[in-house]
Design brief:
heterodimer, A: 134 residues, alpha+beta, five-stranded mixed sheet, 5 strands, globular, B: 377 residues, alpha/beta, six-stranded parallel sheet, two-stranded antiparallel sheet, 15 helices
């Protein structure tokens, strides 16, 4: 059972995302990359970054790292503290409500992403389906 | 953690007189030519504070586009109001909210009017919304719908910062509403109440306003349509604002996502289009919202009440003349059938699709669109 965040967790997540027909449908017109930024807090001692290159309902490439400098500049960043990420994975926080309540921050053009709220939600729901070590 | 947001609400007879107590000096009224022709701007003018200067923009079109709003910004900026009053139905109030944001922040990309971006408004002016129909709930909500003519899309803009400072619900402004507008707008309000009270984001506050709105509207709409009881229109007017508070503090659902999609392709009154899909969306979502729907069903007048909310809605809509099939909306069923793929795509892009009690896949949304073609239900 992989720990979040880690390369193993990211691998399993991407595998599940790529086999998720709901995501394939909801993200079929999406072209763009996103980095999940997991900020350190009292439960995790360093920042972590999961870069996802998403294209037409598939994740073409992913990179997990503790150094943001190793990553290309993504079109979007979804940023939150580790503890809030764990709540998101455990479905205790809705991904959009998470932003509205200040637990997460989204950086990037709003015009494009607001048309893909369903794809965004399926992405988070997929994270919940990864059997994650608590 | 969640929020309850509302403007200060002034309601009841002669509530327009509240304007007289304000201290604003330069007042911009944003409305449309019909409202002006009906003399409703004059009713406002009579109540404005002594010594204040008024400028009226009465060119808001029906279903304004993003470009329409951008065109109004220079006129607003040249006048330099410290108060903007949006007077009219949903189009005028949504236009006023968007214009308010762009007047405050001319540098703003209109697509940044989302809850995800801090706008830092209210540096130049305040916003009052005064509805002249009973249905959109825009006076109480932090959403604004603007069309994008080039993309045939209804953009759902939303930000807690575009909520009005005051909403004024004066029944005098809706006392002579035509029957068809009274019905269409009330159906819109019922849809707000049902979707706001059952969405995945529903909460105790939205439940409260949803339930009272359903009670007020469904128990008074028949009398309001017949003009048989003087209080009925006022009750529907207040109910509609409560329905606005319900969905604004929760979310819309799939009937709105589909209705906006229909409205982008066909000229159908907004309330009629969302109401067209509401009963089948309720049937589709039933298993995910059983308790909420049961409670809502119990609030309808007994004579309409059936064993499920979807059936009750059909009975109620039949009684008040709300269409249940697409051809009853004046749309050619064959033309409609040809556009289903595009209708589905637009609906899928709406947040209402992900906050509906039961999330829908594209093929399920397509079935729901087809379900209002007579003979394919």
């Amino acid at each position: 059972m992989p720990k979040f965040p880690s390369h193993e967790w990211a691998e399993e997540y991407v595998e599940k995302l790529n086999s998720n027909t709901s995501y394939q449908e909801a993200g079929k017109n999406w072209e763009g990359d996103i980095t999940f930024v997991i900020r350190k807090d009292e439960a995790m001692d360093s920042d972590a970054f999961l870069y996802l290159d998403l294209f037409h309902g598939q994740c073409r490439k992913f990179t997990f790292t503790n150094s943001e400098e190793e990553l290309p500049k993504p079109e979007y960043k979804y940023i939150g503290k580790y503890t809030n990420w764990m709540k998101l994975i455990n479905e205790e926080i809705d991904p959009i409500q998470g932003i509205l309540t200040g637990k997460f921050k989204l950086e990037g053009s709003m015009m494009k992403i607001m048309k893909f709220t369903r794809a965004a939600k399926v992405m988070v729901n997929t994270a919940s389906s990864v059997d994650t070590e608590i | 953690m969640w929020f309850f947001r509302s403007p200060d609400i002034v309601f009841g007879k002669e509530s327009l007189s509240f304007l007289n107590n304000l201290t604003f000096r330069k007042i911009l009224v944003v409305t449309d030519s019909n409202i002006e022709r009906l003399g409703l701007v004059e009713l406002i003018k009579k109540e404005l504070p002594e010594g204040s200067t008024l400028h009226v923009i009465s060119s808001v079109p029906e279903e304004p586009t993003l470009a329409d709003i951008k065109e109004l910004v220079p006129e607003a900026s040249n006048f330099g109001p410290d108060l903007i009053i949006g007077l009219g139905g949903g189009s005028c109030m949504d236009a006023s909210k968007s214009l308010f944001a762009l007047y405050e922040r001319p540098d703003l990309d209109i697509y940044d009017i989302t809850p995800l971006v801090p706008l830092n408004l209210r540096k130049k002016a305040r916003l009052i919304l005064i509805p002249t129909t009973s249905g959109t709930g825009s006076e109480c909500s932090w959403a604004a719908v603007l069309s994008d003519a080039s993309h045939k899309r209804k953009n759902e803009l939303a930000s807690p910062e575009i909520i009005a400072d005051y909403a004024i619900l004066d029944p005098a402004l809706v006392s002579r509403l035509p029957r068809s507008i009274t019905r269409n707008t009330a159906v819109d309000a019922i849809t707000h109440a049902i979707e706001g009270g059952s969405s995945q984001w529903h909460n105790v506050y939205s439940d409260l306003f949803s339930e009272k709105a359903i009670e007020l509207i469904t128990n008074n709409i028949t009398s309001a349509l017949d003009d048989s009881e003087p209080e009925a229109r006022e009750n529907v007017h207040i109910g509609a604002s409560m329905a606005g508070l319900a969905f604004s503090n929760s979310q819309i659902g799939l009937a709105h996502a589909m209705g906006h999609s229909l409205g982008a392709h066909f000229r159908v009154p907004h309330g009629m289009s969302v109401g067209l899909y509401l009963p089948s969306v309720v049937d589709f979502s039933e298993r995910s919202a059983q308790d909420r729907y049961a409670k809502m069903n119990s609030l309808f007048p007994v004579k309409y009440r059936k064993s499920g909310l979807g059936a009750t809605l059909r009975e109620f809509f039949l009684n008040i003349g709300q269409p249940l099939f697409v051809d009853q909306c004046g749309i050619d069923s064959i033309d409609y059938g040809r556009k289903i793929d595009s209708l589905v795509q637009l609906a899928e892009e709406s947040t209402g699709t992900v906050t509906n009690p039961r999330e829908a896949e594209g093929n399920e949304i397509a079935d729901l669109f087809r379900g209002v073609i007579r003979g394919e239900e």
